[in-house]
Amino acid sequence: MNDNQAQQPKANILVVDDTPDNLRLLSAMLTQLGYEVRRVINGQTALKTTQAAPPDLILLDIMMPDMNGYEVCQRLKASALTRDIPVIFISALDEVLDKVKAFAVGGVDYITKPFSEEEVFARVENNLTIRRLQKQLTEQNARLQQEISDRQKAETALRLSQFYLDRCKDAVFFMNLNAQFVYVNEAACQTLGYSREQLLTMTVHDIDPNFPAANWLSHMQDLKQRGCYTLESIHITQDGREIEVEISGNYLEFNGQEYLCTSVRYMSNR
């Protein structure tokens, strides 16, 4: 770890209090513990500051002139930009109703003055940890939803392509890097005499003697560079007949996998 990484603050905290002594005390305490601290003395400035550069957590005094902490918190929670920032109330008020109201307007914790350094650190660290875990979960859910959406689109596209390919007069084959068939259309099944289930357990080597396993990978690498090709070859049917074929092949990538797609026109039986 280099010096820049070692000096990175653990989190950015905004302290809101109309008493300068409280601001200095909390700022010194949190800075010493490794946090970056910003200080403001009233609610209006706090709202402008959080909109301009949202902090990771807010320590908010309740008893302030013009706009008290409850109203500040309500406005923070009404904004999409700031609603998820954890707000810890700090107040000399110690009545149950004061604490209930603090949680009702969106606070996540409550520290009663006078406070100790250990208590402030424990509550700040605990709520920052909860917030980090919430963000991780939100990001994971977003990625999962995107993966589900991408998979659904891919499956829909595949079903549509199979619908049209099964109505194609020419045989169509999709093969992976191991030369195994991953898709065949109805024309391929009818001409070769195999069921779709049978062909999907086979490789191109089983039906085309001109594509032995020994040179398959080099053929795929060559095709990957060229992108497509056209050639003549022979396909062997289930009952042993040889059929002259004209093959058009294309290299393609789908969902991070490499495939060879071939369209095969059957010319004549031998």
What would your notes on this structure say?
The protein has 270 residues and is an alpha/beta fold. It folds into two domains: 8-140, Rossmann fold (3-Layer(aba) Sandwich); 165-269, Beta-Lactamase, CATH 3.30.450.20. Helices cover 43% and strands 25% of the residues. The chain contains nine helices and ten strands. It has helices at 3-6, 20-32, 43-52, 69-78, 96-104, 117-165, 186-192, 196-199, 216-226; strands at 12-16, 36-40, 57-61, 87-91, 109-112, 171-175, 181-184, 228-236, 242-254, 257-269. A five-stranded parallel beta sheet has the order 2-1-3-4-5, sandwiched between helices. Strands 7-6-10-9-8 form a five-stranded antiparallel beta sheet. Helix 2 links the parallel strand 1 and strand 2. Helix 3 (43-52) packs parallel to helix 4. The model has no long low-confidence stretch (mean pLDDT 87).
Name a few traits of the molecule.
single chain, 270 residues, alpha/beta, Rossmann fold, Beta-Lactamase, 2 domains, five-stranded parallel beta sheet, five-stranded antiparallel beta sheet, 25% strand, rod-shaped
**CATH architectural name of the largest domain:** 3-Layer(aba) Sandwich
Radius of gyration: 34 Å
**CATH fold naming of the largest domain:** Rossmann fold
Count of DSSP strands = 10
| Overall helicity | 40-55%
**Could you name the CATH homologous superfamily of the largest domain?**
Response regulator
N-C termini distance: 71 Å
Run of helices and strands: HEHEHEHEHEHEEHHHEEE
Low-confidence stretches: none
Query: What does the average pLDDT come to?
Result: 87
Strand content: 25-35%
